[in-house]
Amino acid sequence: MKRRDEVLVGIVATAAVGLGVVGSLYLARGGLLPGYEVYSVYDWGSGLRQGQPVMLSGVSVGYVSTTDIRRDGKLVVGMRIYNRYDVPIGTTSKVAPNGVFGDMMVTLHPSRVTDEHFAPGDTIPAGPPSVGIGEILGKVDTISRDIGALTAALRSELVDAKGLAELRATVASAHDLIETLDRVATEQSRELTRTQQAVRRVAGAVDSAQVDSTIRAVGDLSTNMAVLGADLRATAANLDAVLKKLEAGQGSAGLLLNDPGMYRDTRALLQRLDSLTADFQRNPRKYIKFSVF
Amino acid sequence: MSAPDLTERPTETFPVVQAGGLRFFRWMGRRALALLGGIGARVLFVGEIRRALREGRTWRREVFHQMRAIGVDSLPLTIMVAAFIGGVIAIQIRYQLFPGIQLSIVGLSTRQIVILETGPLLTGLVLAGRVGAKMTAEIATMRVTEQIDALETLAFDPVAYLVVPRLIAGIVMLPILTVFADVAGVLAGMLSSVLVADVQLAQFLEGVRLGYDQFQVTYSLIKATLFGGAIAFLCTFEGYKTFGGAEGVGKSTARAVVITSIAILILDATTAVLLAPYLQA
Questions:
Q1: Which of A73, A86, A291, B22 is least buried, going by the fewest C-beta atoms within 10 A?
Q2: pTM score, whole prediction
Q3: Which of chain A's residues have a Cβ under 8 Å away from the Cβ of B102?
Q4: Interface predicted TM-score (ipTM)
Q5: CB A20 to CB B179 under 8 A?
Q6: How far is A28 from chain B (nearest CA, A)?
Q7: What ranges do the domains of chain A cover?
Q8: Is B96 in a helix, a strand, or coil?
Q9: A103: helix, coil or strand?
């Protein structure tokens, strides 16, 4: 009985220790697979701890095995990469947030396609640090400051400078205007309804024979207008031809209009006629001699 | 005119007030003395245990038997309770989440709740009912049937023989049971959230691994150790100090379960207040 108790207690205790160790290792390492060690050196670890995941292109390929501060203040992070994964040469690493609970992880970013890989013990160069909560909060702070300034400006314009009161007055005026327009529209609508009714009455009273004769007369008128239009177009064409001749200097009229010599002769003739007329008015006896005897 | 003599005033003038006031203060005094007496008796019992620890030959033979009775025999019940609670916690968490929240939080929350709280606490409360009552009833029966007196007559230290093995077994086995409870609770939470709810296995495992710190398990085991000690100490004390025959055995057993349960809750709160800051990532 005593031996049986001891054996049972031993089995349970061993199982508990085994479960505890295996469970803790699983939770701390993110798995129990064997792997090889690579390193990265960072300026700032952002609370990176042993056991946090290492992601290559978004896939968990290992876990952080060690974190150590060097004498120069740099953080040396050891990463255990599972044997079935290779990290291509040219990959950079950085510390990034993992989820929204403050956890961190190491992310590996391959830069080119290559068959060469980092060997155990190699150091993966650190890439530019990812945006941290501090930067995000800084941006949020800037945005909130801008919003504050905008709010203050709006308050200044709308409240302090009576802009809001004016806006309200404008809205009230617009409201009155809309009411007036609404009344006018209602009145117009009523008038249109009346007009429509009157037109309907008139249309009902019109004799269709008269309408036909009127339409026929309108048709004749339209035909006559068409003939008149054709005549006018022909006349216009003739006038156009005459004008073209005039412009080209053809015929007497064309020469009169376009020949400068004839213009000058005509002008000189008119001057002479004018001086002759003046002389005739001054000395009529010079030109008219009347004698009976 | 001389002043009236107040000592001659008849007491019947204020009979109700005087009698009621005295009764209350007498009751308060009795309770305070009983409380202090109880604390003192337990402190003296600790001294007896310390003395009995030197009697290694007496208690060593009994330890494994008690470890089996307290630990191994309680294993199925512990695992079943932890598994049911873990499964229900995971489902409840899943269906309380707002849409859009990443489902890995189900694994994270289940792990934290089971390991930090329900694993050790429920194991302690279950064992207070199952093992603590058994301890008290056994020792109380031995007390009222004068078997303990017989042991003393035979120069056999009853505390070393009856109390110390149970105390050691409780302190050792409760953390072991808690490890099983923690594992069973998380595994049941994983199964229920994957099979019953719409959480993917990968999501649950991602959450389970998120923000893990070794101190979380240590914290759970510290609590379990304290609970195991409290159960064994308080229940053996109640049994050891029993009087009044079979009725006394019943009263002691009931009192032991109540006191132990309250003590476990107080220890749980105290541990949380003292150690929770160290859990902060």
A1: A291
A2: 0.62
A3: 99-100
A4: 0.72
A5: yes
A6: 6
A7: 33-129
A8: helix
A9: strand
